[in-house]
Specification:
The protein contains five helices and no strands. By secondary structure, the chain is mostly helical. The longest helix has 18 residues.
């Protein structure tokens, strides 16, 4: 890669090809990184939740966010806020693990707010109340400054 030119995908769109670490941070070219999540995968809701939980448990919330983003973009209109809220929780955890004491809590709270309308229905066995409580508690803790371990803080998506 010529460092003065932007990376491009097969369609010619800008696409950063730098390797990434487990929290999605770009690393120098030539450095071994963590395999990226393929984009645009259409999964069933249960497959989405299983894959995202696996990634969260492995301390890779950035990658879980990408799985939720695929569901958000490909799912039915009535569920887009659900998947977007879950993506925001995952990226909030990502920022919290990176030490971002402003962005992490903001995204965790925004994700909890996006999930609130789904609390009674608890779609796909999701523990909406549990996820919201987890997000708010973690947001409060992160604001006081400690960087968190993403794997240790991974939420349980289903009750």
């Amino acid at each position: 890669m010529n460092e003065t030119r932007r990376d491009r995908n097969a369609e010619g769109r800008a696409h950063n090809a730098r390797p990434r670490d487990g929290l999605g941070r770009p690393m120098p070219y030539g450095t071994p990184g963590v395999a990226r999540q393929p984009e645009g995968i259409v999964r069933t809701p249960r497959e989405t939740l299983a894959e995202a939980q696996r990634l969260l448990d492995e301390g890779m919330p950035f990658h879980a966010h990408e799985v939720f983003e695929d569901a958000w973009k490909s799912g039915p209109e009535g569920e887009r806020e659900l998947w977007r809220g879950l993506a925001q929780l995952a990226v909030g955890l990502t920022h919290a693990a990176r030490g971002n004491i402003t962005g992490g809590p903001r995204l965790l709270r925004r994700g909890a707010g996006a999930l609130a309308p789904f609390a009674e229905a608890a779609p796909y066995g999701l523990s909406i109340a549990g996820l919201s409580a987890w997000a708010k508690e973690l947001a409060d803790r992160v604001e006081s400054g400690p960087t968190v371990d993403a794997a240790a803080e991974a939420p349980r998506l289903r009750g």
